[in-house]
Amino acid sequence: MKKFITSLLGLFLILSFFLGAETKDNDPLLIKVKPAKLTPLKQEAFSWLDASAQDLDKLNDQIWSYAETALQEYQSSEALASYLEKMGFKVERGVAGMPTAFVAVYGTGEPVIGILAEYDALPGLSQEAVPQKKPVEAGQPGHGCGHNIFGVASTATAVAMKQVMEKNHLQGTIKLFGCPAEETVVGKVFMARDGVFNGLSCCIQWHPDSGNEVSLGSSNALNQIEVEFFGKTAHAAGDPWDGRSALDGIELTDIGLNFLREHLKPTARIHYVILNGGGAPNVVPDYAKAWYFVRDIDRETVEKDYERVLKVIDGAAKMSETTYKVNFISGVHETLANRAGSEVVYSNLLLVGPPVFSPEDQSFAKEIQKNLGVEEKGLKTDIEPFKLPEKSWGSGSTDVAEVSWLAPTTALGIATAPIGTPGHHWAEVACAGTSIAHKALLTAAKVMAATGVDFFTQPEIIKKMRAEWTENKKGKEYKSPLSSDLKPPVKPKK
Ligand SMILES: [Zn+2]
Hints:
By secondary structure, the protein is an alpha/beta fold. The chain has helices spanning 2-25, 40-66, 74-86, 147-168, 187-193, 246-260, 299-320, 339-352, 359-372, 400-404, 426-432, 435-457, 459-472, and strands spanning 90-93, 102-108, 112-118, 172-179, 202-204, 207-209, 221-230, 269-276, 287-296, 323-332, 413-415. Mean pLDDT is 94; it is low at 1-23.
């Protein structure tokens, strides 16, 4: 009897394996896309990219070593802008009131195809291109989101597309947007408010990833503010009744927000840090400052949440008998994905294939994984299936969302970081300065350039993308979350 049950169990396991495989294949979220065809024009773009690989790698490593944070990217933006100028683009620097933002243009007339480039680093992530934690200089910034690869691959895409257009007398315009300060969710928001992205037929962008994929997912809308409280100082033991604590203002705000959470939709995300909470416990602080993020599923919901957050701040000021000032830093929309455009990107990803990493690249990645206590799987060598997004319980926010409301915008992720390692981490900085980054940037540029060729030569694709985009906007027009007089938080050159 026992034997019978065991074999029955075995049969069940075998059956469920096949049924499981069948379910996977019949995944209702799966979108079937065929690889794009290799046309002579795409071959021209690929040949230019292959021939320019050494220059591009150098540019990648240069920006990696600059590792400049948000709105400090003076050398990084200049490196890309001057390269584009040398390659025949007309460059306008200092757009939207930010010295490190630029637009590089080639060609005239329609279609107008935008490409986004980012290049800001993250504070505190300084790291050598080695597989164990080893800062170049402790406490200094590093490219923990791979934006050096991002900037160079996008720049390479623009130049490769220009070579094809020029040689084949194609009509249209390429606009490469040098977008600073993505990490502080600032750059593209100001550029969008000031009309820098107006008039685009569509826009192409990518991001370094741990997989090779095209995602149709969205991102959370966001408002970020700094709140300053002003009180009255006093001896904390001698005459505390004469003092009014600015820190109380912050703490009561935070308590209020933590009670508010229960009465917000589960999609809301509120987080904060205290930037200044006073100097010493025996002095009643007359000044305190905190930084808040309010996120939710879409712009309208964030605005509603935000109104309630403002009431809590006001209430905290009343309770602590302090005054306060809210400094609006920036806000973004939720991202509008574009399936029609993303299908073209995915078909070109299938054509180009994932980056081909060398055994040395893989052992570098595995060494990192070993040091982080993560399974030693190396780097991704396959392509993720193209799927409709699953219902999500929240995600980060990006200023790419602003562009997605101004033109249909495509997405792409290419593996630059070892599987299972965290983002915004020294592991990512290390990989971004090695041949792993070089292979990823070439792959990303080929996929995007081939997509650009399809957009230039098949006007029906852009028509389809724009029809879907118009429908997705549901009659809403882009309205900047920023007031018209708000200035970007520009920092002087160091
Ligand atoms: Zn990033």
